[in-house]
Specification:
By secondary structure, this protein is of the alpha/beta class. The protein has 2 domains: 42-151 and 297-324, 3-Layer(aba) Sandwich (Rossmann fold), CATH 3.40.50; 153-295 and 328-346, Rossmann fold (3-Layer(aba) Sandwich), CATH 3.40.50.2300. It has 14 helices and 12 strands. The chain has helices at 3-10, 13-34, 38-42, 61-76, 90-102, 119-127, 153-171, 187-200, 219-232, 247-256, 278-286, 297-312, 333-336, 341-346, and strands spanning 50-55, 80-85, 107-111, 132-135, 147-151, 175-181, 207-214, 236-241, 270-275, 291-294, 320-323, 326-329. Strands 2-1-3-4-5-11 form a 6-stranded parallel β-sheet, with helices on both faces. β8 (236-241), α10 and β9 (270-275) form a beta-alpha-beta unit. α4 (61-76) crosses α12 and α9 packs parallel to α10 (247-256). The longest helix has 22 residues, at 13-34. It is elongated, with a radius of gyration of 26 Å. The N and C termini lie far apart (57 Å). Residues 1-44 have low confidence and may be disordered.
């Protein structure tokens, strides 16, 4: 007789049912200890919430890190995620948001392509009564209602460049400077450019800006621009980039020009960036990068999810929640490295 049939005959029916019930109860309790209920985590009732997460792109490490951090925050609250990546196509992103609306999601988290093209998407969410939070890139002025969580690009860039200027002053010589700008259709790029200019203002005796390189967040365009700038001004000794994402192109151009030197070596170019990605961390660890402004991706992800839940709960939420970020440099690496998202990716 097979073992299963033998056990079935051996055990009275009530005992079999009792053991099966006990197993189910133990399994359910085990799952519950690792997965808090939506009601406990978000206070939104018994049904599981669904949130649509729409990113314009995953082109950079920062966007990937942010995407994963947001999903982790939602998972902690037992919230189901619908994902959409627009691959830099604003029309496609609008269609993706409309799909979220049609499916009746409980909230939308969005990284828009730019400040203007996202407004119809926000209006679609508004019309359906679905709260929407923009991650790291706010919308332009309109009657559309949304909340944005964003790094303080102006302040963080200004602080980073101010630190670089301190290092320049220690050399006792005047420096010719280059700034690599982002896509100026992106409000983040504008804030970083303005932060650079604000830091340089009043220090013209020390810093002369001789080159402004447009990149439009494109590696090839950035590299060509830096090559041309170094050919036109081979004595450039101060470079700030609006994104660490562009460092591979910048470093390539600097190496070609024989200007990629470690801190303390003759000919070192004072170098700074913005974002805090894994490349920047490695460059800092290797002694080439003086400073970078770090966006706190973990703060931004948690603040984004919390803002969405607060909106659903009818709470007052500011239209802009700013991440102050922090400047990491050679003097505070030991203290700040654990907070740097790029360092955690590299490790």
């Amino acid at each position: 007789m097979p073992h299963a049939q033998f056990m079935k005959r051996l055990l009275p029916i009530p005992i079999s049912i009792t053991l099966a019930s006990l197993f189910v109860a133990m399994w359910t309790a085990g799952c519950g200890s690792n997965s808090p209920t939506t009601q406990e985590a978000s206070g939104q009732g018994e049904k599981q919430l669904t949130v649509g997460v729409a990113f314009e792109t995953l082109q950079t490490e920062y966007w990937v890190a942010g995407f994963e951090a947001i999903k982790e925050q939602l998972a902690k609250r037992n919230i189901k995620v619908l994902e959409a990546i627009a691959n830099s196509d604003s029309n496609r992103q609008f269609e993706q948001i409309q799909t979220f609306v049609t499916r009746g999601v409980d909230g939308i988290i969005m990284v828009p392509k730019d400040a203007k093209t996202c407004i119809p998407s926000i209006r679609a969410a508004n019309s359906a009564g679905i709260p929407i939070v923009l991650f790291n890139r706010p919308a332009g002025e309109s009657d559309a209602k949304s909340v944005a969580v964003q790094a303080d690009n102006f302040k963080l860039s200004k602080e980073t460049v101010a630190f670089m200027i301190e290092q320049a002053r220690k050399t006792g010589t005047k420096h010719k400077a280059m700034v690599i700008m982002g896509d100026l259709g992106d409000i983040n790029a504008i804030g970083r450019r303005d932060g650079f200019d604000a830091a340089v203002k009043g220090n013209e005796d020390l810093i002369e800006v001789v080159s402004r390189v447009p990149s439009e967040w494109n590696q090839e365009k950035a590299q060509a621009g830096v090559v041309n700038a170094l050919q036109a001004h081979p004595d450039i000794s101060f470079i700030f980039t609006s994104s660490d994402f562009l460092f591979p192109s910048i470093v390539s151009a600097m190496k070609t020009a024989g200007k990629y030197k470690k801190i303390g070596e003759p000919g070192h170019v004072i170098l700074g960036g913005f974002d805090g990605d894994a490349t920047a961390y490695q460059m800092m660890k290797d002694g080439y990068l003086d400073a970078t402004g770090v966006q706190d991706v973990y703060f931004e992800a948690e603040a984004t999810v919390q803002a969405l839940l607060d909106l659903r709960g009818g709470k007052d939420v500011p239209t802009l929640i700013q991440d102050p970020g922090f400047v990491i440099h050679q003097g505070n690496m030991d203290e700040m490295t654990p907070k740097m998202w790029g360092a955690n990716i590299r490790k």
